[in-house]
């Protein structure tokens, strides 16, 4: 059966994407699946308009026009607007409150909240500040820090005790963060507020860096730590959907 004809516009998009992801001409040809003649012709047009640049070594890299457009796009990204449809679905499916937090210096802040169907409301609001060592969102963000940065955090602002369950030593924090990296999600087992348990998952930007985190929150009376861990696949799947919407590369866990 004959393949559908690829339009000129589609070919241009295919080659631009291939040129951004590959530096060598042969790799761009292989990635695009188009003929060398077609690739060369369209690449030259992209070069003429500044979307692709050729280095002195003959490699293809994003040009100034592409970088300018990317900059404008990133300036317009609103994580709350992007995440809201996904966390609405998660809150509906789990019945619990879902938060999105962003790193803000040595702490995190809530940037989006969606309440669940429970008869109670978690007393949180947009802009609330969170410690990194005692919250599910904060731990996800802290787990992406370098070892030196974690040591610096432990020294300043320090490990403020929130509850009897809060980690208060560097050794304890490092052990917790290593477990988070291995399994891909975090717990807040009444470590920040008595009676509250949460599970957290990472949200990555277009570079793959963890810039935000998602948490699902419930009362400890409702869920043991084993119960709330059952929400991990849903939390991770939602975080990955948001990450994908932000342009993050595909990941596996």
TrEMBL record:
The keyword Ribonucleoprotein does not apply. GO terms for molecular function: DNA binding; DNA-binding transcription factor activity. PANTHER family: HELIX-TURN-HELIX TRANSCRIPTIONAL REGULATOR, ICLR FAMILY, HTH-TYPE TRANSCRIPTIONAL REGULATOR RV1719. Gene3D superfamilies: 3.30.450.40, Winged helix-like DNA-binding domain superfamily/Winged helix DNA-binding domain. This is IclR family transcriptional regulator. Residues 65-248 form the IclR-ED domain. InterPro entries: GAF-like_dom_sf, HTH_MetabolicPath_Reg, Tscrpt_reg_IclR_C, Tscrpt_reg_IclR_N, WH-like_DNA-bd_sf, WH_DNA-bd_sf. It holds the Pfam family IclR_C. Keywords: DNA-binding, Transcription, Transcription regulation. Residues 6-64 form the HTH iclR-type domain. GO terms for biological process: negative regulation of DNA-templated transcription.
């Amino acid at each position: 059966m004959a393949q559908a004809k690829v339009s000129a516009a589609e070919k241009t998009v295919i080659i631009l994407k291939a040129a951004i992801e590959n530096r060598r001409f042969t790799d761009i040809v292989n990635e695009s699946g188009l003929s060398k003649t077609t690739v060369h012709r369209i690449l030259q047009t992209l070069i003429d308009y500044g979307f692709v640049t050729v280095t002195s070594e003959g490699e293809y890299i994003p040009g100034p026009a592409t970088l300018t457009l990317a900059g404008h796009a990133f300036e317009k990204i609103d994580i709350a607007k992007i995440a809201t449809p996904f966390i609405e679905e998660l809150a509906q499916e789990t019945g619990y409150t879902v938060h999105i937090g962003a790193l803000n210096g040595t702490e995190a802040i809530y940037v989006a909240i969606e309440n669940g169907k429970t008869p109670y409301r978690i007393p949180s609001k947009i802009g609330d500040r969170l410690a990194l060592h005692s919250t599910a969102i904060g731990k996800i963000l802290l787990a992406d820090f370098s070892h030196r940065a974690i040591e610096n955090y432990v020294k300043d602002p320090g490990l403020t005790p929130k509850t009897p369950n809060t980690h208060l030593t560097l050794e304890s924090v490092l052990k917790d963060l290593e477990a988070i990296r291995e399994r891909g999600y975090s717990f807040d087992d009444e470590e920040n507020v008595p009676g509250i348990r949460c599970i957290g998952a990472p949200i990555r930007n277009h570079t793959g860096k963890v810039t935000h985190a998602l948490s699902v929150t419930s009362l400890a009376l409702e869920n043991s730590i084993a119960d709330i861990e059952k929400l991990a696949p849903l939390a991770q799947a939602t975080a990955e959907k948001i990450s994908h919407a932000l342009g993050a590369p595909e990941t596996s866990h």
